Amino acid sequence: MIRIGLFDKTSTLQLGPGSYRVSGKVSRRSPRFKEAVKIIPTKEGFTANKERWGKQVVIEPSDRGGWSWSITVRSGAIELDRRGDGIRVVNRVSVEDYVRGVLQMETSDKWPEQALKAQAVISRTYALRNRGRHGRSGYDFCAHPHCQVYGGARAERPRTDAAVKKTRSEVLVDRKGRLITTVFHSCCGGDTESAENVWEQGGQPYLKPVKCSWCRGSPPYQWVAKVPYELVDQRIRSAGIKIGEVRAIGILSHTPSGRVYKVRLYGQQGTHDLFANKFRNIVDPHLIRSTLWTGLSKLDGSWQVHGKGWGHGVGLCQWGMKNLAEKNMSYGQILRFYYHGVEVDDWTE
Question: pTM of the predicted model, to two decimals?
Answer without folding.
Answer: 0.92
